[in-house]
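Weekly structure sync - notes
Attendees: PM, LS, DV (DV joined late)
Agenda: review two folding runs queued last week.

Item 1: First target. Sequence and structure tokens pasted below for the record.
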Amino acid sequence: MPPLSTWIRGCFVVHISSGKRGTTEMHTITREELERLRQQYPVGTIVRLVRMDDPQAPPPGTKGTVRHVDDIGTIHVSWDTGSSLGVVYGMDKIERVR
């Protein structure tokens, strides 16, 4: 099930349910933060995975190419392993390679 999200008081609030931990986490992103992410990770940017809490995640250190940043701040990446998995704002971590 995709995350539920809404704009509340100028912030985009993302509700992420994790059955593995049995908790629900809430991350917010302001319009300004979203714009900063889009400027920092434009289409074609090469990134390296640092951390991702997902059983389908590629191993840390895997490189990939940014495809787009969506309205909730997820950075969609085509990984060099052949998978396509989004980097969740506030939970996962990547670094720019170039």
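Item 2: Second target, run right after the first with the same settings.
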Amino acid sequence: MSSEPLDVDHTVSDEPLCGEIGDRIMSEGGNAVDAAVAATFCLAVTSPHLTGLGGGGTMLLHKNRENKTVIIDFREAAPAGVEAR
């Protein structure tokens, strides 16, 4: 295995077009979080039944400089006072 750093910046998405949009954001100076947000907005258009502005999700983020990976859970939740009828 090489110790050379990889020069790989790609956005992975269920929809290839949304991944391409994320890649473009990074090629224009954005970071991985910028790319993920852009790809999510794209998915809100291409797959509105799965995601959207009011929806939630999960993000796996690797902080390369710290060699630390974190999971951000932003799944939606009903307010505490809501009751099923």
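Discussion on item 2: The longest strand covers residues 58-63.
Action: LS to circulate a short write-up before next sync.
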